[in-house]
């Protein structure tokens, strides 16, 4: 099964849960693959400490205008909702850093004046952390488009393994792209107003995509009970509750996974997996 | 000549909108006749990104040779410069007064943007 660990709000404990889950599954005989999809700030490698075996560059496209063919009709820039192309009276300017590589401008141009130029935007690294196959994407500094790197990570999925995806925070394109890879999604949140609000955004997004999901509440004994109430009212299964534990924060700050703190957390995380996978057999 | 002044509303009483890319309107004023035509910038006002350069293109299409505004970011500034449009930053007050100040030759053109992108 492919399980995405996501959250609307950042800093709720996504990576703590995702890395701990992968280790808990591996220690119980699952063949596990871990993909860190937070390509803007990948940090699972700090906790899982994989040995990297190979890396490759990832490219995307940007439009290239043939000025001899361009009639300055403006159809490309009218189409581009990201303003990556701008038609001036005397020229069309391309802003590669705003382009989302949708290729719409190529289709919109009636003069066939737009071709696709390749631009490298990041790197995929693959390796092994114990028995866990590991891969993460690294977006180049200054690049804003994460999704082509997620496409490359998706292509690295090993269908013979159970896959844990550490999703990027938020509910924008990189989150959607990651959730689309998954069979199910666990949304990690915290019992605070921000946690609740951003959970609601993530729930709306996943319902729109028709992806099965459940909720994990981190630091469940802090804040208020509105996240619990929300989940009850919405009929959302709460599959994990982790109490506030300064040892978790301490281990995290030392680059150690939550499963280092003893069998209790490992068991808790594995039970969460059993619950969301409906007891599907180990791969 | 035509000049474009960023404006917070249409017509009488319009004040300089301090933002260029996400200005509500551009008052495109004829310095000879003193008449101003208001170009709606709503589309760029709500753009998720690239508002400054689209606004620069919109101004270029009006034929204005000068932009007078409060603040202008680096991409918009570069795009205006490439279109041969001069930029005045730091302007404030009523659009009508700004037009008169310009006609008296009291503004200095900026040689660079005065705010970061996404200001």
Give a brief outline of the structure:
Chain A has 283 residues and is of the alpha/beta class.
Question: Could you please describe the fold and organization of this structure?
Answer:
The complex is a heterodimer of chains A (283) and B (119). Chain A is α/β, with parallel strands linked by helices and 283 residues long. Chain A folds into two domains: 2-31 and 160-277, Rossmann fold (3-Layer(aba) Sandwich), CATH 3.40.50; 59-120, Alpha-Beta Plaits, CATH 3.30.70.20. Chain A has helices at residues 14-26, 44-48, 75-79, 104-108, 147-155, 173-181, 193-209, 226-234, 246-253, 263-277; strands spanning 2-6, 32-36, 51-65, 85-87, 92-94, 114-129, 132-139, 162-166, 184-189, 212-218, 238-242. In chain A, strands 3-6-7-2-8-1-9-10-11 form a nine-stranded mixed beta sheet, with helices on both faces. Chain A has a two-stranded antiparallel ribbon with strand order 4-5. In chain A, helix 5 packs parallel to helix 6 (173-181). By secondary structure, chain B is of the alpha/beta class. Chain B has a single domain, classed as 2-Layer Sandwich (Nucleotidyltransferase, domain 5), CATH 3.30.420.130. In chain B, 29% of the residues lie in helices and 19% in strands. In chain B, strand 4, helix 3 (74-82) and strand 5 (86-88) form a beta-alpha-beta unit. Chain B is globular. The relative contact order of chain B is 0.22. The mean pLDDT of chain B is 93.
